Amino acid sequence: QNNMSSNSSSSITPKSPTTSTPPKPTPQPSQIPSLLSLTHQHILSQTPYPNLPPSLKTQHSPQSYANISLQFHILNACSPYTSLPSNLQESHSREQYYTALSKQMQLFMHPYPYQFAHLMQNTLRLSPFEYYYQILAQMMKKELSYDTLPNFTAADVHRLLGIGRNQYIDMMNAARSKKWQWRFRSKGMVNNLLPQEARVDQMEVQYWWLVEPVLSIPHEQFAKMYATFSEQEQIVIGQVKSEGKILACRLDLEALKGLYRRGCLYFTVPVQDSDYIVIPPLKGFIMNRQPNNDFEKLLYDILVTMDERTSVGELARVLERDPMMVRAAVSLCCRLGFAKKKVKRPHNLKDTLQDQYLKEWEPLIDAYHKDIDKHALTDTVSPKLDVSGMGATAGDDVASSTATTGDSAVVATAQTITSTTAPKKLKRIVFLFDSSLTAYLMMGNLGAGLKSHAVTLFEVGKMPDETLDEFLEELDKVHLNEDDEEGEAARYYKHAITLRNTIRFLRHNSSFADLPNTDGGLDIIRCESLNQLDAGTKLRVLQSNYAVEIAMAPLAARSLELPTVNYRTYGPPHTQVSSPWFKLFIYHCAGVGPKSRLFCKGQRLTKLPRFLQGADRYCITNWTSEPNPVQNNIALQVINETLIHSPVLFQVYQETPDTVVETFDVVFPFLEKSQEQLQELSAQNQNEYKQVAQIMLKLTEKLYLEASFGIVNMLRITRPDKESECKVLPIGMSFGIPLSEIELNREVCESIEQGKLFSQQNREKHHQNMHKMCQEFLIFIDEHIRVQMRLMQEIYPTDSLDFDGEKVITSV
After folding, report:
1. Which residues, listed in sequence order, are joined to residue 550 by a DSSP beta bridge?
2. pLDDT digits over 257-279, tens only?
3. Handedness of CA 124, 127, 128, 132 (dihedral sign)
């Protein structure tokens, strides 16, 4: 229990008279995925050991196969005992299985398995406090970094033990300062440094949670504890033991926390398939993300795909995950405060038992629903269920927090409420951004409130329409002073301002009325979070929730990886559009561009190509990074180092030291100036405009850009002795809405509205045009690679290619 009962570590009697014991945790967690990859198909199909193919039998004994099967069901599925294959149920008792489950989950630092709380508490006598205490004790003895603790585990540790990053570092420093005592008596020091009971003073308990008694405390021990209870605590424990399961709001809150601290009761956070969830901005989130953690991945998948219009059951179907696991994950998010369940406010009617609550709960109930109303737009709530007579029995495996109607363990929601039929789910617009935007919002020192939203955007990866008002309030506080219009700081301010303008432009815009089945709402999603979803899930989320997808421009290379070529996306229509291949394709279509060579990965140069020699500066672009200008004296060294890891596009950037080069961007769809507007320009500007217009008209024709939007990056080259003359070259292109410059952002938004680019006709034209462009682009790539490279995911060049300023040729 919370006071560190020694019974929790007692030995377990095997189910059968054999000498088998629960399998010991594997000391090398990194080995588990490789072992499972060899046998997981046979484990899923419950293939008995005698029927395994000979190749697997040579690698596994019957016992090792059973152990790997057990580890798979624990770590990959967190399966209840009743769903285990018959051979595992025969070799392991219920108690043995859950003991092994708790040990494996502690080894991998997973969150406490609250879905099995009644078994953990009443059979194994393992409370959440003791579970996390043991994890922290092992971390301290091994002197592990706090960063090894996964995100959601760290959040629950902080909630129950009050130990965060700073507290953990302080404890480790205090322990190490003892030197020899820490080296030889670390166990005793750990016990002295760690708290001995749960921290309940700041712990949030929601009124709709259920309270259940711990039944495993021996009678004599409980009698001694009962004598120390206050009068109110005695009343509360009597009610809980009498009813077995009771709403938290019907009990005294301070007495509840006192009894929880003593380990006499525990809380169940009930979630059903029919429930709806709201994701508010993250507060108190601990950023310790761990790779290869399946349950943590599920939690992140839920945060990025969940919205208040999707029920928990629908979410499980979208993710194609076990509904029990999804309910358990949503329940944990609600417990940690990262999600809130939409429940109808109770009225405290005297004639309805389930609606009664103590007066002291009223401010907490008001605060809960005020927060829900702030982040929710629809009135969908959980359906009516009765608390009495429903719940997990002693023999059930699945805890009440994850049961659904029809299961053997059915749980009540917080109160009786009128069943509400969910309205027809309308689609929205989604704005896709990459991690660079969250970095600008966090690093720019733009305000504490904005920084917390930036953390939400990075960690959750999504901000739904329901929470954008609060986000916009923080963005409205950002102002760009005249003194800050240049430099690195200006970049942060400009991105915040253009993001605000873009959200306001896209959200509930009446000129987008042609978008079918939409409510006008806008969600913003981080591409990298979307990429973590399985390909099928990603496609289902986009198709079922959004009428149109719009990307920021430019997106970082490979940040948006769509499962199929998605021509309805107003962003990169193909992953190769962000590669150097597309730059060469642009030059090929425009018939003009900087002199360039695309080198193959692994090449080694002793000198620069002849037609590129003599320039003062060059631009080096590898397969996934932004262009990097370098001086001629180090160009050879840099390109050789880069070619070890990636193909490289090598381009002339500045021919002579006295040449002035400037980059600028041109919006498409391109609108030609009238004759009157042209006459207002100076001779120098007229010359420049004619070159720009010629390039843009060619690209619009060859790349079919008339129904799409974005920017073309240009390079202006001017010689001091010929200031009236300049040369303009295209150097790149980005699809979507730019956030780098305020005026550029405004121009693109105006072109969308004035050109009615989201009309039915223009959307269809955009889809058709992007299909044609991608076909021709892929044919261009196909013509310049060898046959064996065409099926590879990364389409790297197989021969060096040159662009001589007019056309693309294979270099000799």
Report:
1. 431, 570
2. 999 999 999 999 999 999 999 88
3. negative
